[in-house]
Design a protein that fits this description.
InterPro entries: ATAP, ATAP_core_dom, FeS_cluster_insertion_CS, HesB-like_dom_sf
Largest sheet: 7 strands, mixed
CATH class: Mainly Beta
Number of helices: 2
Order of helices and strands: EEHEEEEHEEEE
Oligomer: single chain
Number of strands: 10
CATH architecture: Sandwich
Strand order of the largest sheet: 1-5-6-3-4-10-9
Number of domains: 1
Protein name: HesB/IscA family protein
Organism: Deinococcus rufus
Radius of gyration: 15 Å
Distance between the termini: 30 Å
Pfam families: Fe-S_biosyn (PF01521)
Helix content: 10-25%
Length: 140
């Protein structure tokens, strides 16, 4: 593991690598409590694909892998692998509810464009992987 930070105890300090909103934390804590996994956290990661080039992924994970950055925010442990961190740095995990239901999303300052459904994004410095990123939101 490369870094551990506690944003709620660092008032006025450097911004955390990643954070979670109050509503997102409430939802995540409920899911983590019912997961049955001791010491679990929310793993936030980036994978290739989606209509804009990259796609967000989240999972309940009780493993801390070599190179992970671990952030504790609002009582939630967030785990980010070393490959995903540069694309997520400064982002905030949130939970949104709408007419289609609800789900977790990432408010990402690194994304320069995203698809209409909010599950995939692109940055200025990255092109969509070959053969990916050309479909609509249904191609996730």
């Amino acid at each position: 593991m490369t870094a551990i930070s506690h944003p709620e105890s660092n008032a006025g300090a450097v911004a955390p690598e990643i954070s979670i909103s109050e509503f997102g934390a409430q939802k995540a804590l409920g899911i983590l409590a019912s997961s049955g996994k001791e010491n679990a956290g929310v793993r936030v990661f980036i994978k290739s694909g989606g209509c804009s080039g990259y796609q967000y992924g989240m999972a309940i994970d009780d493993r801390e892998l070599e190179g992970d950055t671990i952030v504790y925010d609002r009582g939630v442990k967030l785990l980010v692998d070393h490959m995903s961190l540069p694309l997520l740095r400064g982002g905030q995990v949130d939970f949104v509810e709408n007419m289609m239901g609800g789900g977790f999303t990432v408010h990402n300052p690194n994304a320069t464009s995203s698809c209409g459904c909010g599950h995939s994004f692109r940055t200025d410095s990255a092109q969509a992987p070959d053969g990916e990123g050309s479909g609509g939101c249904g191609s996730h």
